[in-house]
Each structure stands twice: as C-alpha cells, then as structure tokens.
C-alpha cells in the first residue's frame, strides 16, 4: 500500500500539468498529426468497427501489422503501449486459466488469441489516432462530423480548467493535511495510512464542490456575455470556425493507401485464410 | 413569480452550470482514480473504480439529466482523452450506461434530506452501472469469439469473472466510494450549493407517482432502450455513425426520442436491478416506501 | 455636448426571492468617451448596476425589473444579452473564470468567433497588441501570471471592439506595478480610442489619477454623479460610507476640515507637494521606539533558520527554473516580519519552504530546531501555520466553529472547547460561529482564516497577502486583527505588496528580488532608500513619497503622523493651476 502514498505524491500539481498538457498539444509534428482530423476519424471508425466482425486470422494479422506501422509513425509513448499490452495479456490470461478450470483445454487458446488480435487492432487504432490529434483538432474534427458543439466546447474547456482545478484541489488537500493528524502507525499493510489518505481525498470534494459551483456560475455568465449561446444557434459560426480544415493530398494518399492495403488484405485473406495458424 | 416557485424549472444557463460543474468535478476525480494503483487478487481487481459519489450527489441535488451527462462527458475528457487512454467507440458504451445509472439514481431521490432514500439510490445507481457494464463485457467476448459454445469453459469463465468483478465493484467501490460519501455529502450540500449557482434547491418531497414507475408503456420502451445501452458495440454493426447522435441541448429537443426512452430505460433497468437484488431490498421496505 | 452612450431611466430591480430591491429607481447617463468610477460600500449595488448595462439584468437574472436601459441607442428590452454584449465588454472581478479556452490566442478570438466575424483572428491580434500580450499568443492560460490573465480578460472584451468597457475591480488582485499598468492601458483606450470606460473601484488613488467622473452608490440608489475632484473632496460624506479618499486628500481635509463650499482638496502627490509645507515644530516620531524594540529582539530565541537554501521548479520545457538562489535567514521570537517584493520575487516560495510545503533543492530549513526539509505537512502543523492568500482554500468544514476546531479535534486535545471559544472571541467571530465561512464577506473570511491558524498556537505564522482583495476599510480593520495575533503567536511573517500594511505593522522588513534577499532591516532603513524599493519593483505610498519630497525628518506612514508634521500652505494653491492637473 506504499503505492498509494507514492501515487498521492504523484498527484503533485506541477507534475500532472507538465505531463498532461505538455504532451497533449505536442502531437502535430508526426506524419499522422499533420493529417486532417476528419481523415483520421474516418480511418479510425473503420478500424474500430470492422475487426469485430472479421474472423479471418490472416486479415486480422494484416490489420495488426498496419496498426503497428502507424503506431510507430505516431510515436506513441512506450508507457501507454506497456499499459495496453499488460491489460490485454492479463485479461485474456485469466480468461484462459479459468476456462481450463471449467474443463476447457489448450484448444481454447486459439479463439482467444484471435480475440486478442482483434482487441489489439482496435486499441492500437484508437491510440494511434487519438494521440495524433491535439484537443483542438480533435474537437474540430468531431464537430465537423456532427458531434454536438457542446462536447467540443467541453473538451477545450477541460484543458483550460484542469490546471486551476488541480491547483485548488492541491490547496484544499494541503489545508486538510496541515490541520489534520496522520495515523501515528502505518497499520497492517499501510492500511491505516491508505485509509487516512483516501478519506481526505474524498473529503476534499466537499469544499471543492462548493468552490467550483461558485466558479461555474461566473463562467456561464461570462459565456453569455461572450456570445456563446449566440454561436450555438448559428450554423454560420461553425462553418467559419471549421473553415481551416482542408483535405490535402497527403490525406487522400493516406486514405487511398489504406483502402488499397485493406482490399489486398481481404483478397489475400480469402485465398489463404489460415496463413497464421 | 408565484408560478416560478411551483415547479422545479431551470433556465438554459442553469442547466449548463450543472453540466459544467459535474463535468469538471467528476472529470478531476476520474483522473485521480485512474492514477491510484489497484491490487490484483487473481482475476479480481481490488481497486478504486471511480468516485461515483460525485455524480450521485450532484444528480440528487440538481437536475439528474444534466448532472449525469456532464459527469459522463467529464470522464471521457479528463479520464480518457487527457490521459491518452481514449478508447474511441468503446467509450460510448460507458457513456450511455454510466449516465443512465446516475440519472436513475438521481431520479429515485425525492427528498435529499432523507438518508435512507439517498443511500438506497446510491447503491442502486452503482449496481445498475456495474451490471450493465458486465453485460456489455460479456457481449463483447460473445461477439469477438467466433463460436463461443465451441470453446469449452469460456462462457462459464467469462460469466464468473464478470460476476465476481460486479460484486467486488458494487461492494467495495459501491460502499466506500458511493454510499458513504454520498450519505455524508448530500444532506450537507442540500440548500447550500444551490444558491452558489443562483438557483433554488430542489423541492423536498418532490414526488414521482409510483404509477409512473411501473406503467407498462414505460416498461416496454425501457426494454427497447436497455437494448441500446447494453449493446453499443452491437449497434455499431449497423453502420451506426456518431453523426446521428445529437445531444438535446436545445430546450425544444428535450423530448426527443432517445432521451425520453433513456429515461424510461433507466426506470426499467432500476426495476430489473431491484428484483435482482431483492435480498438487499428485503432488509427494509424502505425503498418501496421511498419510491412512493 | 457629446452623445450619451448609456442611459438608465428609473431602473428598479429585485433579485428573485429577495424582498428588497437591489436597485431602487436608478437614473444615470454616460456620454461617449467618459471614464467613470462607480464607488460605494459593499452591497450598495455597484455590480448589479453594471450588470444592467449589458442586459444580464433583467435577461439573465430573472427578477422584477422596471424602468428602461438604453445602450448605444438600443433599448435593452427585448434584446438578448448576446446582442447587447456586442457593444459592451465586461471584465469580471473574478476574471480568471471568464477565460474559457486553453491558449491565449484561442481565448481572445473566442468572442468575435462566436459572433461570426470572419476577421476574428485579426481582431484577436489587435486586441492582444492593445494590451501588450502579442508575445504570449501561443502560451497556455495557466502559464500566465495574475496580471497577464487580467489583461487577457480585457483583451477578450476588446476584441469585439465595443463602445463601452465595464471593469469590475480591475486592480483588486494585482500588485501596485501591474495595477498601474492596467490603468495606463485603460487610459489609452479612453483617450486614443475614445472608448467609454466604467470601473468599479475601491482604490481612491487610482480614481483620482485616472477617472473623470464618479458615481456614488448607496443602498441601491445613486447618491450623486460628480466630476472626480468634487467627488473626492466630499471627504466626510465618503468616510461616513466607509470609502477612503486618497491619503493626500484626507490629510488636507484633516488639517482643514469643512472647507468653504466649492473649495477643493489636492488629489495626488504632485498637487500635495504644492499644498503642504513642513511644520517647523518637531514631533517626536514614534518609530524610534519600535527601532529599539527591534534591537532588543536580536537577543531572542531563534525560531526559523535557513541556510543557503535554493529552490527550483521544473518547467514545461523540462528545464529547471530557479526560484530561490541561496537564501540565508534567521527569524527570532517576537518579530513581525514583512516580506516584500514584486510578483515572482520568491516570497511565497520562501514561506512554503518554512511551512514544509515544498522541499528545498539545496540547503536546510530549521524551524524550532526541527529540520523540515520534506517532512510531511502533518508533522509540522503544530509549529507552523500557513494562511493562504485565498481564504476559501482553507475552508474545509461547514461552520466557522468547526473550521477552528478541526485541528484541535484531529489531535483530541482536551481544551478544544475552551480554545475555540477563546479564538472566536479574540477574532470577533462569536456571532458568526455557526455560519458557513464561504458565505461571509471578504474581511470576515480573513478573520476566520487567521483564527484557524491561531488556534493551532504555532510558533510561526505565515500569511500570504492578507490584505489582497479587501476594500480599504476592511484593510484598516485587518491591521488591528494582526495586532491580536501578537499575543497568540511567537513570530509572524507576512508576504505582501501593501506598503501601508508594512508601514503600520512590521518591525522588520525583508526585501526580496529575483529569488534573493536584497535588503533586511527596520522600517526607516528600508523606506528611506527609494532606489531600493524601485529596484524591488515596489511603490512607496503617497504619504511616504510626500514625506520625502517635503523633507520631513522621517518617513511618515500614518495620516496622523503626517498631519502632525505638516501644515497647509496659506492660501493653499488649491485654486490655482497645479491642482487641476489630474482633471
């Protein structure tokens, strides 16, 4: 349970600010990052849905290879990849072990490997795309595809307000700690200490709720004076805002390249459905 | 003026305040719960699943729809997108099940000062959410594996894993991070947080007639919609696109089909869960009385 | 006669659910190019008045509204807030909450984009140039300082190129240099661009220097609307309402109260110089005594000791940003230490080090013989109390009594009840004990935060800007409250910009600049060195400046002291040209 303490130490304002916001807006230097957000989203939609209904292992493997290439291209942080792999392996691993217990055999491993392959393709697709889109471009892309403007606004507002919220959370947490009393003994497996911290973290939300309520009131009032509701009812504004989105030749190249690859893949898949196993 | 006092009505901006409040707070908490490590006991994960008390509290104090949707959006933005863990379409299922569950819990409370009512609603809210997400997980494997029945033991094991996970989340996260904090917060915040947003507190004893709860029309509509919530992944099968999904921010769209039916689904899902957890309910007849 | 741009006719407004109207039959008009200050005590309806201008009242706040508001020829009736806001820019007192986008450029373009202006980017650029923020266009909002955020809020309003700008308490949260900077910008907007400007303001010094007209609000109605010199010269009327005119004006009034009707007082130091003369009779300055006390204290027990302390933060570019560079400092029992310096000089960081809230990169910090480097805050809490700048961040309970008792209860001390009562009494909070601290006024909140700190009975109490955001009368009260602390706490350290507070309260002054201590001494030593203050980015108070200009034997910090040392010049040149410069 020492991990809890370390985790709480990690909730240092500066740390999170730097880690999250620094990287969030830093993605447009990669090849995928330079593509139009709509291209990426459409591309993603395909790879998020189709694999579910493909049971041909050759096709899935081909898709997986493509995903690995795009993942490398988008320079995803190794940490995220590690988390992904770990999650997939442990999930499937436990499933397999339990199925052995229920009378399954080694042969149940194969369908599960297929499932893993599917899940990997889908997860890698989402990681590639969403780590290549900075929040602004993502929200613009989504709103051009018809997601409500309120979501797009919330997304960028989230990035605006997060540091403020963290700061305030941190201060209130400090207030609790400066006036509180940590358990003198850590207890069994640091249980007491963990309970103490978790209790504070929950309690912090009481003042935080009240303070945030005050804040939201001004924010919404200010939004009114800044013409936000006017824009929501005005399609012209949306058009103006999204006018910078442009399908460049690289977008078409990327899309047609992917199409060609998939077509070839399906053709190959039907010829040799059991290339892998 | 007098008509204003009669009903619990909100202006457009007040709804947005609730939305923003719920989004930022739950989003922030989600970030922490993502960072707090979990203990793995075999296939079962002992973890702080989420701080459900935040949306639960807000749903009980304010208009449940906006608080619930706000929290779900907050989770996607802070807990997924910002941490680089956004799962794309998979998040949609979370979004629907979570807001549905929170909304139902919020609707169940008519008197925020009544601790028993608040407690029961909090637990049911968590239970609905966990149940729905377990079902979705099972459906995922079912869709993902070509012939589920052909693989011996797989079906059983997935049900066991999900079942244990469900119980763990309801009992561990549910009691520690939904029930207790909600019981602590709701009565304290009631009547205090509303003026800060410039609105009147929800009327105490604002009642939903029990007839409304169980009318057959609602049940049928609810089942239909429960299907929507359960199978977000399946829905994608039919060429479902984000473009068709419009959140009804405009007042006029409030009765638009999807939300109306979601409301119904919430009620029905609640009823289903209640019957499933009859044992929990038998402890007292409170719930029955409270819902009346 | 210039065109009226804004007119209220018999406006009465009641908030929903309230019994009393907040505005009562208010009529006023502003002409194009006006620079008007709205003054009045807390709760007199200043903000409410300004919210009538852009239609927030009655469209956003649905209450009982009667009368008419006409903005740029448009009646507010039947027009939405959004429509009226094209003509009026509004900067809130808590301006941080009106910034809604992650980066500077996004935020400044937000309003024109919402209104569908195709040239929204150019508008944003222009507004940034006007406020001097062009360099920062790609920064994140959270990287900006408080002053820059305020400028950005202003730029966001300017991007719409509105005819009228309303700014609610523009300088409340800024240090004196930044405050002056923002007023300089407002003046330019007013003079060069012909904008009509309305400010809600407590600081009479700024009103006297920059505004042309003053509206005095009292209990929901407008008492009068006068040119600034006349307004500020109504000293007794203003003081009765708890509004403090500039020190120079007050000094002249104290020397010759009840001037014949129509005679006016000086408004600023420049004018004061011509009005006052040094009275020959020497008055023994009281400051000397405190100096001796200061000497005696040198022998006392050491409470805080810092040795060669350095502190750096990591920046977004993954480089280290040094905040403190080699601090050596000893604080002793009984000292009242003022830590002064401009924003970013390292004052707060220094205090956080003492409180154990941050760990020094190098060096050691000792408090009461305990090495605090990186100790958990719970360990130190009985020894050091840290009072945040924003009292709301200290409120964790739902009543004043529980706030004060929290520390004592957490430690299960036996005399909890007693001590809480004692604190409530000492800080005059007995009446408010059962209320929620968040709902109290600014001054009351500060008192609660001090009581929370004092209940701990710490050896050292650290206060971050205890007078920020307070109006002048509350500020005066704070000085008295700080005196209360002397009996409870061994050593008090205050980080502040408020020279008035320093002058009236401190026994020892430490001047910080760029992470170093550049001076450390008594009041007279520090204040006599004008260059030093300038180097540290601080401004002298008008009285100090005047004392120097008039060649008084020592620097006067209080009005009483000053008026004992000076006299008004015979036939004060108030009539003559020199006093009209401000107009």
Automatic annotation (TrEMBL), chain A:
The keyword Transmembrane helix applies. This is Energy-coupling factor transporter transmembrane protein EcfT. The keyword DNA damage does not apply. It comes from Paenibacillus monticola. The lineage of its organism: Bacteria, Bacillati, Bacillota, Bacilli, Bacillales. Its main location: membrane. It comes from the Bacteria. It is found in: Membrane. The chain crosses the membrane at residues 41-73, 79-102, 109-130, 187-209, 252-271. GO terms for cellular component: plasma membrane. Keywords: Membrane, Transmembrane, Transmembrane helix. It is a multi-pass membrane protein.
From TrEMBL, chain B:
It holds the Pfam family DUF8171. The chain crosses the membrane at residues 51-73, 118-143, 170-190, 211-236, 256-277. GO terms for biological process: cell division. It comes from the Bacteria. Residues 17-283 form the DUF8171 domain. InterPro entries: DUF8171. Keywords: Cell cycle, Cell division, Membrane, Transmembrane, Transmembrane helix. This is Cell division protein FtsQ. It comes from Paenibacillus monticola.
From TrEMBL, chain C:
Gene3D superfamilies: P-loop containing nucleotide triphosphate hydrolases. One of its GO terms (molecular function) is ATP binding. Signal peptide: none annotated. It is a peripheral membrane protein. Pfam families: ABC_tran. NCBIfam families: PRK13648.1. Belongs to the ABC transporter superfamily. This is ATP-binding cassette domain-containing protein. It comes from Paenibacillus monticola.
